[in-house]
Amino acid sequence: MFKLKKVRFKSTQSRNAALNNLNGIFQYISINMVASFAGLFIKRLNASDNLVSMLNSLPAFFSVVAIIIGTRFASNCKNKKKIASLLFLTARSFYLLMAFITLINEKYRALFFVFLYSSLNFPGSIANFMWQSFFADTFKPSDRGKYLSIRNTLSTAAGTITTLSAGVILSKYAKGENFLRYYQIAFVTAFIFGILEVITLYLHKENKNNSFIEVSTGDNPLSFKFLKTMLKQKKYVYFMIGVIAFHFSWQMGWPLFLTYEVDVLHTNELWSGIITTINGIFMAIGYTYWRKFTEKNGNTLGLALGAVGMAFNPILYIFARNMRHVAYFTGIIGFSQSAVLLMLLNILYEISPRENRTTYIAFYNLATNLTLIVAPWVGMKIYKLIDFKDSFVLIAALRLASSLLFIKKPKNLSEDPSVCINVTK
């Protein structure tokens, strides 16, 4: 399908590592060209609070359905790279459909966008956990941390620069009746980078003889039989309890932060780009720092520290009187978030058994998307019943409490620093 003739690499591993970096850069840019401004976009389309909550929850619904269906064939798939590439291509094609939003009646444009933004998660979610499984099959455990740390750093740096540039352009030119035209350009640009993302993934070389490749029994889709087997994996079960609790408290705040920034702090695309840039810089720094931290201290402590740091995010919002104040503490949040994103997948790879690994990864994705269906609605409901300040305090308390689940762990929870793995969302 695609060929890479002019560039010579010392080995297949170095080739895959280089392509992995490029793939991460293109993926980050493609996703963030849309995701970073999606909330502001529907606000400009006069979306209701229910649609704002739906922007967070509905994608998770499509993800849950996709994961349940996808695991029926994904774990037994003979060519994960090819299927993941096709599914990523399908998902990025939805960005192109978004560019046709002007053809929709103004009354339904916000709903149309939310539906497209959500439904792309059906192919995207299957592609995501298949890529996670493909990555585990491609790089040996001792090298994953190094390669993915570099990937995360480069993709975050490149992505934040692109997002800032897009924010400046949208803030300056996307005004009045012309704002749709510039968002259309952003959607088409995201699609183009999505094509590059797919090409760089497809160019990876596979080695079916790797000693660490997944062993599939052919009887491992998400089912009651799998759940019965999973419950015997005590380390995995305990980890998932912490994951579910933390994700619920984490996701509760997402629609509240957006609503607060738009309705109270009066943010715009420029500030969105600035916040994303600051967050990205500190996440890039964090990826490198936390990889070194885990090599000495293990994954669990790093995850707990990152989760505690993120618990303070809602409290800091209470003291924000304008977007400049948000910019002041965004670096702290980005640094903490990088730890959480890295360590969650670190531990997932570490404790998931080699046998039927894809299904364990899929169950992790399923659980975090199930919480995402409910949590944003709960967060907005709480805000309606009380106010922003009390809602932020409650969410902070729940995040802090859930982070303790990562600190207090069973004695047998693996803490071998030699198998630290770093990966983003």
Task: Produce a short descriptive summary.
This protein has 16 helices and no strands. Helix content is 77%, strand content 0%.
How would you explain this protein's 3D organization?
- By secondary structure, the protein is mainly α.
- It has a single domain (about 10-205, about 225-420), classed as Growth Hormone, Chain: A (Up-down Bundle), CATH 1.20.1250.20.
- The protein has helices spanning about 10-45, 50-75, 80-100, 110-120, 120-140, 140-175, 180-200, 225-230, 235-250, 255-265, 270-295, 300-310, 315-320, 325-350, 355-385, 390-405.
- Helix 12 (about 300-310) runs antiparallel to helix 14 (about 325-350).
- Mean pLDDT is about 85; it is low at about 410-425.
Give me the secondary-structure topology.
Layout: H1 12-44, H2 49-74, H3 80-98, H4 109-119, H5 121-138, H6 141-173, H7 179-202, H8 224-230, H9 234-252, H10 254-263, H11 269-297, H12 299-311, H13 313-318, H14 323-351, H15 357-385, H16 388-407
Mean pLDDT: 84
CATH C-level category? Mainly Alpha
N-C termini distance: 27 Å
Counting DSSP H or I runs of 4 or more residues, the number of helices is: 16
